UniProtKB/TrEMBL annotation:
It comes from Hymenobacter taeanensis. This is LON peptidase substrate-binding domain-containing protein. Residues 6-184 form the Lon N-terminal domain.
C-alpha cells in the first residue's frame, strides 16, 4: 500500500474530473473554514462524490485558485481546479480540530495514454452528438489530443455513469466505456431528431415535385 496523507474533504453530489475547473458558492461555516485554511496554509482538499446516500472512497483532489467574491454574510464564490485522484483509507467526520471532514488518503495513479484509433472513432461520434445537441462550438474547441476527461460532462451520462468513468484505471478503459455509451445513445438521439422533423412537417402544405414518368 502506498503512503497515506491527511486530506480535507468537501463531499458533493457530483463527479469532478482531473483538469476540470469548478466554481463553487461556499455558505456553510465548515466549508468557509476550509477555504480560509486553503488560503492561509496553502492546503488542497478533496471532493469525493456523495452517491447513494454515502461518501465514495474515490475522489478528486482540488486546488483553490482564488476567491472571486466575499459576501457580508461570510459566504464566498471561489474558483478551483481539479488535480488528480485519491482513495480514502480512513474517513473522519471531522478532521482533527476542524469543522469539516477529512480522511487519510492515498494517491491513485493513472495511465493517460490513449488509443489513437479509439480516439478517432470517439471524435466522429462526438461530432454527430454535438451537432444534434446544438453544441458544434464545443466540438470546434476540442484540442487535437483531447482526453476523455475533457468531454466527460458533455456525453449525456448520469452521475453514476460519470463515477464509473472516474474509476477506470487507464485512458484506454475510459475510451472504451465512452464509445460503448455513444454507440447506444446516438441512434436513439438520431431517431428522435427524425421524429421531430416528421412532426414539424405534419399539417403543413407540402410542395413536392412528382416523379417524371
Amino acid at each position: 500500500m502506498s503512503e497515506t496523507r491527511l486530506l480535507a474533504l468537501f463531499p458533493l453530489n457530483l463527479v469532478v474530473f482531473p483538469g476540470e475547473k469548478l466554481n463553487l458558492h461556499i455558505f456553510e461555516p465548515r466549508y468557509r473554514q476550509l477555504v480560509h485554511d486553503c488560503l492561509e496554509q496553502n492546503i488542497t482538499f478533496g471532493i469525493p462524490p456523495y452517491l447513494k446516500e454515502g461518501i465514495s472512497t474515490l475522489g478528486t483532489e482540488m486546488q483553490l485558485v482564488g476567491v472571486e467574491k466575499t459576501y457580508e454574510s461570510g459566504e464566498m464564490d471561489i474558483k478551483t481546479r481539479a488535480l488528480g485522484l485519491f482513495r480514502v483509507q480512513e474517513f473522519y467526520r471531522q478532521a482533527p480540530g476542524k469543522l469539516y471532514a477529512g480522511a487519510d488518503v492515498e494517491d491513485v495513479t493513472d495511465d493517460p495514454t490513449g488509443d489513437i484509433a479509439l480516439q478517432s472513432r470517439i471524435k466522429d461520434q462526438i461530432r454527430q452528438l454535438y451537432a444534434i445537441l446544438g453544441l458544434r462550438h464545443l466540438f470546434l474547441e476540442l484540442p487535437t489530443n483531447f482526453r476523455v476527461y475533457d468531454i466527460a460532462h458533455h456525453l449525456g451520462m448520469n452521475t453514476e455513469q460519470e463515477f464509473e468513468l472516474l474509476t477506470a484505471d487507464t485512458e484506454v478503459d475510459r475510451q472504451t466505456m465512452v464509445l460503448e455509451h455513444l454507440e447506444q445513445v446516438l441512434p436513439i438521439l438520431l431517431e428522435t431528431e427524425r421524429l421531430k422533423e416528421r412532426s414539424r412537417l405534419n399539417g403543413h402544405f407540402k410542395n413536392l415535385t412528382p416523379p417524371n414518368f
